[in-house]
Amino acid sequence: MRFNAFLVALLLCGFAMPLFSQEHDSSEEPPFREPLYFSEVDRDNATPQAVRVGGVIFVSAISGEGSNVEEQIRTIYMRLQSIMGNYGLTMADVAQERIYLKSGESSEAVKFRRQLIYANGISPACSILQVAGLESPEALVAVELIAVASPDEE
Which residues form the signal peptide (predicted)? Predict the structure, then answer.
């Protein structure tokens, strides 16, 4: 019985030791993870605008320039199309969209712009959330996405 317990302990140590002995440099990105930074400030702060993990692209919430929701959402979708292009994708590859609308703003302009962007009839799952505020006091709307590349695009 002691011999069996000894073998089990030896096996467990044999499997556990490599976990503790490997040095890990947190500044290195795993090869399957591809971040996209808009600026050196983003890179220095370790806040990528998007990250591709395998065939899935996660895009951080983006706000846009403009004095009203219509102008801001137009700018946001232009930036999102650019981000998708950086990964060789289009808005048709978007699987989920989360829209943050500053409380009190109308969602009609957002819904209209979405219809233009996803005019092909294939739109992603979407949540429109009313929030108390966004990062920038001037921001009235922000959009974040999750997109999925087809297997031949990975």
Answer: 1-21
